[in-house]
Amino acid sequence: xxxxxxPRRRRRYAGTHPRRFEEKYKExxxxxxxxxxxxxxxxxxxxxxxxxxxxxxxVREVLALxxxxxxxxxxxxxxxHAGDLLAAVQPGGxxxxxxxxxxxxxxxxxxxxxxxFPDESIRVHRTNFAGLxxxxxxxxxxxxxxxxxxxxxxxxxxxxxxxxxTFKDDGPLDLRMNPERGTPAHALLAAVPxxxxxxxxxxxxxxxxxxxxxxxxxxxxxxxxxxTTTQLARAIRAALPPGQQEPDTxxxxxxxxxxxxxxxxxxxxxxxxxxxxxxxxxxxRVAILTFHSGEDRxxxxxxxxxxxxxxxxxxxxxxxxxxxxxxxxxxxxxxxxLRWARAAS
Length: 345
Ligand SMILES: C[S@@+](CC[C@H](N)C(=O)[O-])C[C@H]1O[C@@H](n2cnc3c(N)ncnc32)[C@H](O)[C@@H]1O
Hints:
Blueprint: H1 34-42, H2 56-63, E1 70-73, H3 80-88, E2 94-99, H4 105-113, E3 122-126, H5 132-139, E4 144-150, H6 155-159, H7 185-191, H8 194-205, H9 210-223, H10 229-239, H11 247-262, H12 265-279, E5 280-290, H13 293-308, E6 312-315, H14 324-329, E7 337-343
Parallel strand pairs: 1-2, 1-4, 2-3, 4-5
Antiparallel strand pairs: 5-7, 6-7
The structure holds S-adenosylmethionine.
């Protein structure tokens, strides 16, 4: 066999613990390596290529599903919430699931279909939840009995350096949940005027150093183009005033702001929230998980507005936070906030 014909061997990692995403092939194949996956979970980490559903019990309680109901998961992700909710509406109920991510959506759909529920009880759409009302006009004209939205990015998106969401590993500075549409973050960063960049960092991440960082990043990009995640992280750290505490927190906030911008996340969320009461059947329930103040503020105001004008009969009196046990088992739940509302009957 010639060198060219020989099958390529999987890259092995040196040592006992794989560090790079592509080396974590055992974690990414739970069917073959269940024991390894269980070990990673038990250590409080999320295995590569997996997402742990956040506040699963609380979401289930809030939505109070009954057999035969129609439930919408507006952010399917790995399908953790969806699988649980699908089981809760059996027998006779339906799940309508949405996500914009063309990479993860087919895998999540396959996982849902493998759960053994009737095929016709699962409907999966690659759609932005901003268009949920239009979708339900044909899928569930009388409205959904329950809707869940678990905002932001999934662990699969976050952990895969090729998607450009993480600054822990080098990858293209992309940050799009749907890499087939829109502008990647490196292109936005190359073109955005300094003033707009400062506004973006302030508005999308409440970044206290927005002006300083915008200046530093504009200077850095004039020296050389910023096209990868680690180049951006380095440029952010270099732009910080000396003695800045917790530089990684600032890096995380800048990545968050760029992610919100390239995915137009707030416009989608606002449209979703505006149309939400019309998407619910009378008495229908909605649960929304948020992960930063910009999201939570919007949900809180929309729910309060809906209560005032009578479209909602009841809303969460206060935000619900993950339990201490969940925080211990899954640190990624730390910033989660859950709010719910019930449509008027
Ligand atoms: C936090 S994850 C959801 C995880 C999921 N609840 C689970 O248990 O596996 C968020 C998902 O929402 C998707 N998403 C974000 N914004 C969206 C939008 N506007 N429309 C549809 N999907 C969106 C992302 O692509 C991602 O897969």
